[in-house]
Each structure stands twice: as C-alpha cells, then as structure tokens.
Specification:
130 residues; binds [cytidine-5'-phosphate] glycerylphosphoric acid ester; alpha/beta; globular
Length: 130
C-alpha cells in the first residue's frame, strides 16, 4: 500500500486544489492532507476567507482525501511522514526544492502547479462583489 501525504491551506477550494489532490492520490492508495490551521496561516502571513473547520469540511467531501490532520507549524512534516507511514510527499512545484530534506524518509514529488488560478485571485473577485 503506497501512502501519500501533502499539505496546504486549501482556502476557497478550487480547480487547482482538486487537480493537486487527484494527481497525488493517483500515485498511491491513501492520501493524508495536513491542513493549515488558522494560527499557522497567521504565521505564514496568509489571510483566508474560510476558517479551518469550514476548509476541513470542504476537503472532507473530496473523494481523493482519506485523512485530514492539522498543520500547525513548518517543522511537523518529518514527524507526520513517520506517524502516517507516508511513502511519498507531494506538493505543487511552487514549492520545488523547499522540502527536499525529507527525501531521506520518503520520496519527494513536486507536481506542476496549475496556472491561472489561486485563492488570492478568487478573493479579489469575491471582494469586488461585496
Ligand atoms: N496548487 C497548485 N496550483 C495552484 C494553486 C495551488 O498546484 N494554482 C497547489 C499548491 O502547490 C499546494 C496545494 O495546491 O501543493 C495547496 O495550495 P495552498 O492551499 O495555496 O497551499 P499553501 O498555502 O501554499 O500551503 O507546508 C506547506 C504549506 O501548508 C502549503
């Protein structure tokens, strides 16, 4: 059984998020997602439209996702990979190189980022409709 792990904010869930999760899950038999908590997004300097519980509820409806757990900090990935026995760590390639240090305990894969869509742009559109 090949186990995949990935992380993200997944705010204003969109097409690119779906593609990332679909491609990640297709690499194995199980996908765990570390979902950034609101407190961690504050550390990342990332403002979100939706709080953690709503982002988690949306992700829970995505068939590619088998487990969702909180991502509280940058440092927990190594422990998570060991805890969940992940074989492959997957991120979009906007993160290319950032997590190569994990390649002693799992395969690290950066998938091509889907162009022309991101939560930031969606938030700008949403703010204009208010
Ligand atoms: N993504 C993508 N294409 C986009 C936007 C996002 O492939 N157009 C991917 C990102 O590369 C990431 C995942 O979708 O792998 C989730 O993206 P975000 O929610 O923006 O994640 P981020 O805030 O970058 O948090 O520790 C890692 C961080 O938690 C990642």
């Amino acid at each position: 059984m090949t186990r995949i792990i990935t992380y993200g904010t997944f705010d204003t869930f969109h097409w690119a998020h779906m593609l990332l999760l679909q491609r990640a899950r297709a690499m194995g038999d199980w996908l765990g997602v570390g979902l950034s908590t609101d407190a961690f997004n504050a550390i990342k300097g990332k403002q979100t439209c939706l709080p953690y519980e709503q982002r988690k509820q949306i992700l829970s409806g995505v068939k590619y996702v088998d487990l969702i757990f909180p991502e509280n900090n940058w440092q927990q990935k190594r422990d998570d990979i060991l805890k969940y026995h992940a074989d492959i760590f997957v991120m979009g390639d906007d993160w290319r190189g950032k997590f190569d240090d994990l390649n002693d305990i799992c395969q690290v894969v950066y998938l091509p980022r889907t162009p022309d869509i991101c939560s930031t742009e969606i938030k700008k559109i949403l703010s204009k409709t208010k």
